[in-house]
Amino acid sequence: RFCPCATGRTQQYCTSAKNISIRDALTSLDTGSNIRIRGWVRSVRSQKNHLFLHVSDGSSLQPLQVIANSDLNIRGLTFGCAVDITGSLEKSPSQKQKVELQAQRVEVVGECDPVDFPFKIKERHSLEYIRQFPHLRCRTNSFGSLLRIRSEAAAAIHSYFRDNGFVQIHTPIITSNDCEGAGELFQVEVKNPHFFSVPAYLTVSGQLHLEVMAGAFPAVYTFGPTFRAENSQSRRHLAEFYMAEAEISFIESLEDLMKVMEDLFKTSTEHLLSQCAEDMGLFHKFISPGQRVRHDTLSIISYTEAIDILSRNSEQFTFKTEWGCDLQTEHEKFLVKHCGNVPVFVTDYPYDLKPFYARDNQDQPRHTAAAVDLLVPGVGELCGGSLREERLELLKTRLARAGLEDTYAWYLQLRQFGSVPHGGFGMGFERYLQCVLGVKNIKDTIPFARSSRSCLL
Ligand code: 4AD
After folding, report:
1. If both were cysteines, with which of 31, 278, 450, 453 could 239 make a disulfide (CB 3.0 to 4.6 Å apart)?
2. Residue 285 to residues 142, 280, 288, 291: CA-CA distances in angstroms?
């Protein structure tokens, strides 16, 4: 079949048709132009002598409508098949779209058996259903939107840090430390047992490596995968998740740290609402405006105030609400509701609840650390942060009490040579997406979810 453009080439090899993404085609003003698109068929219907196709290529939620003459005789054209189409972009007479493609050539590149294909034409499949097909779910509208939003959210986080003078540090994935001291480590097994000469693990947090860098840079960040062998089947825990972590030097108060956490949260969310409005709309369609996360108002309470609030309502909880207890998910949810369903900072946790690096508030009679968590509606804890103990003697005593003085000799040295007050935090990326999209299960926010008893693909 020769191209009508008079170059003498067959349509398949004609270069007069401009390769264009569906997103660009949908907003193009260049009607009458000859274009080529490649993608997957989302719907097919025939009417009189025409076939009406909706084709997607991952660049936008909205598909491009393609109209093909029935006598093009297209073999294997079904829902889900892959196509390569050239034709003329025309103004659409329909209200539903501005443009449509009048096809001159439709080639089925890869057939798709609609009977065996787990997704059905025009059916709305639940996130739980599509989760069973991690190798195919990117082909659904909802997961396509999620992946575009996720990509844009990652870019927004990087932009926030870059725009505010943070230097990106690639912290290691393999490490010999358990930063959080919670023992939820994946150990790296090497065939040669002498390879590292020390036990090696997948990182649970890049914090300690960022603290090294905070000895030379005023503001650093990292954004990469972290791993925790938490034996949890909850809807907010993954074994492999991404974390955005920041470390800031010469910072003296939790307020200064909370300001950065709040700014990151607000700026990224505003970016998504403006840049991914259509994709975000797909998720927000299923939650009422009142349930959407607020990013304009944040609340602050101390841990001690939080315990007072919870104790007054202790009959509602399974877990204890005494001063000194860790806050459980049920407590976090209650506190968020109590504060008007807005994100809430909880500050100054009991000293003994926090890891060795948290700065001692040296207060009486209740001994607290300068640590803060940000709790958000629908999810609970989104960020954890603290001022770090920069005073050599205090840190030495605490590490010695835990028998970790030798393990962290290098960390102690950071306090010996030009130590400065500093602090930082980590924000769980998948929990962030859960919160802004109103997604119930964290497994629906990551391309390939890993959790206890689940490592498909
Ligand atoms: O509160 P966490 O444990 O803090 C740290 O790791 C600090 N070292 C970070 C720092 O200060 N640089 O974890 C931070 C966040 C949590 O608030 C949560 O959002 C997320 O990481 N997170 C998880 N997300 C998914 N699955 C899990 N198993 C998670 N564990 C933590």
Report:
1. 450
2. 12, 9, 7, 11
pLDDT band at 11 (very low <50, low <70, confident <90, very high): low
Q: Which homologous superfamily does the CATH classification assign to the domain defined by 11-110?
A: Nucleic acid-binding proteins (2.40.50.140)
179 lines ligand 1 (CB under 6 A): yes
Residue nearest to atom 4 of ligand 1 (CA): 384
Residues near 17 by beta carbon (within 8 Å), at least 6 away in sequence: 3, 5, 11, 34, 35, 36, 86, 87
Distance (Å, rounded) from C-alpha 295 to C-alpha 279?
Answer: 18
Cα dihedral 432/436/438/439 (nearest 10): -40
pLDDT in tens, 48-61: 899 999 999 999 99
Check: pTM over 0.90? Answer yes or no.
yes
Mean of the pLDDT values across residues 57-82?
A: 93
- pLDDT per position as a tens digit, 347-396: 999 999 999 999 999 999 999 999 999 999 989 999 999 999 999 999 99
What residues contact 99, with CB distance under 8 A and at least 6 apart?
25, 26, 28, 31, 64, 89, 90, 91, 92
Ligand 1 closest atom vs CA 382: 19
Mutating to test ligand 1, I would choose from 171, 205, 372, 376 the residue with most ligand atoms within 8 A of its C-beta, which is 205
Q: Is the beta carbon of 241 within 6 A of some atom in ligand 1?
A: yes
The string of pLDDT tens digits covering residues 201-225 is: 999 999 999 999 999 999 999 999 9
Give how far the C-alpha of residue 144 lies from the chain's centroid of Cα atoms, to the nearest Å: 14
CATH architecture of 137-445: 2-Layer Sandwich (3.30)
Task: State the Cα–Cα distance between residues 457 and 454, nearest whole angstrom.
Answer: 10
Domain boundaries, the chain: 11-110, 137-445
- CA of 240 from ligand 1 middle (Å) equals 11
C-alpha of residue 382 to centroid of ligand 1, in Å: 8
Nearest CA to ligand 1 atom 22: 428
Q: Phi and psi dihedrals of 89, rounded to 5?
A: -80, 125
User: What is the DSSP-derived secondary structure letter of residue 156?
Assistant: H
- How far, in Å, from the CA of 435 to the mean position of ligand 1? 15
Q: Which atom of ligand 1 is closest in space to residue 381's alpha carbon?
A: 17
User: In angstroms, rounded to a whole number, what is the distance separating the alpha carbons of residues 82 and 454?
Assistant: 30
The values of phi and psi at residue 430, to 5°, are -70, -35
Mean pLDDT for the stretch of residues 290-316: 88
Q: CA–CA separation, 243 vs 383, rounded Å?
A: 9
